[in-house]
Design goal:
plasmid; single chain; 5 helices; 156 residues; 2 domains; 54% helix; 3-stranded antiparallel sheet; two-stranded parallel sheet
């Protein structure tokens, strides 16, 4: 990405952040406020990544740092996979049959009894439009304009 592209990304992310912040004041439930807060945290993280990439670009252009170009390539790849999780994040280790939710402790999914061995992982269920409230259209815009997926699922 070029400096101009990163500046444009930064500007759009900051704009979305302001829109989410403005919508947060109209929240009528704790759950809605939590969703807004999590989206703000995700946007802040994306903004911080862009700022880091812009600092690396300045180092490359100034010729100050020999490895800055490689770091910039890595940061660009990482940003390409950036995702904002509003609720639960589920990690599954198929080799050990363990899972964890939101970076917590690993939990064994194996159970055994007289009937045999069973492996039962939690599943992720998406929120419906009513649960999203005013965030639904904002999330859609972020996903379409910024190409940053916003996931809102809960583990059950």
């Amino acid at each position: 990405m070029t400096t101009d592209q990163n500046l444009m990304l930064y500007t759009k992310l900051a704009g979305f952040r302001l829109v989410v912040l403005a919508h947060r004041f109209g929240c009528d439930s704790d759950f809605s406020r939590e969703l807004h807060d999590r989206l703000l945290e995700g946007l802040d993280a994306a903004i911080a990544r862009i700022q880091g990439m812009m600092a690396l670009e300045r180092s490359v252009l100034a010729g100050e740092d020999e490895i800055a170009e490689y770091q910039l390539q890595g940061e660009t790849e990482i940003f390409g996979r950036f995702t904002i999780n509003l609720l639960d994040d589920l990690e599954i280790d198929d080799d050990t049959h363990e899972y964890r939710i939101n970076g917590g402790n690993w939990i064994n999914a194996l159970t055994a009894d007289d009937g045999g061995v069973e492996i039962e992982f939690p599943t992720l269920v998406g929120l419906n439009g009513e649960e999203f409230g005013s965030l639904a259209s904002i999330i859609m815009d972020i996903t379409q304009e910024m190409d940053i997926p916003v996931r809102a699922v809960r583990a059950i």
